[in-house]
Structures are given as structure tokens and as C-alpha cells.
Design brief:
alpha+beta; Immunoglobulin-like; five-stranded mixed β-sheet; four-stranded mixed β-sheet; 1 helix; globular; binds copper (II) ion
Length: 110
């Protein structure tokens, strides 16, 4: 009897841990409206995600550039098609739209 109780307790602990981890990782929504990122500056915790919406009726693009200048291009983003990007590494990033060079925002990951 005692042997079967222990794994159950372990499972419950694991489940609680998984749930708290899921609750901890945040997702912040960024909209692209009138060819602007709104808001245009955010601070995240490592492991958080940004969900980019496109409320405009034109294509956008999301390119993430780290402090060393490495760019990660997430491709053309059609109106109404969200893109979710996870930020695992602390640092300062800028986000650009390659279609509209004036569109930029900053992301700080702590
Ligand atoms: Cu754009």
C-alpha cells in the first residue's frame, strides 16, 4: 500500500510544478496597427513570448535582431495571421518589419 502512495504524491508534485511553470511563462500581445508596433517597447522575463497580431490590411514581417546584430526573420505575415515568438535568452532586442523600415520596437528580456 505504502509503495503505491509514493508515486501518486510524486505525480501530484510534478503536475503542480508543470502548472506553475506554465502560469509563469507569459505571453504579451503586440499589435501591428497603422504600420506601427503597439506597444513599441516591452520588458519580458526569459521564456516569455510575444504574440504579434496584424490588424492592418497589408502584409507585415517580424524580424528579431539581437544585440550582436544577428537577425531572425519570421517571414511575411498576412493580415489576421498571428506569429508567436519565444524569447529564451536575456538581452536587448529590436524588432523590425522588413516591409516597412520605419516599423520598429524594442524588447528587453530579463
Ligand atoms: Cu510592416
Amino acid at each position: 500500500m505504502k509503495i503505491s502512495v509514493l508515486p501518486m504524491a510524486t505525480l501530484a508534485t510534478l503536475a503542480a510544478l508543470l502548472l506553475s511553470t506554465a502560469a509563469y511563462a507569459g505571453e504579451t500581445v503586440i499589435d501591428q496597427q497603422a504600420q506601427k508596433f503597439v506597444p513599441n517597447a516591452v520588458t519580458l522575463k526569459a521564456g516569455d513570448s510575444l504574440k504579434f497580431l496584424n490588424s492592418d490590411d497589408v502584409d507585415h514581417n517580424v524580424t528579431v535582431i539581437d544585440a550582436a546584430g544577428n537577425a531572425e526573420d519570421h517571414g511575411i505575415q498576412k493580415p489576421g495571421a498571428p506569429i508567436v515568438i519565444k524569447f529564451d535568452k536575456p538581452g536587448d532586442y529590436s524588432v523590425r518589419c522588413s516591409v516597412h523600415p520605419r516599423m520598429k520596437m524594442s524588447v528587453k528580456v530579463e
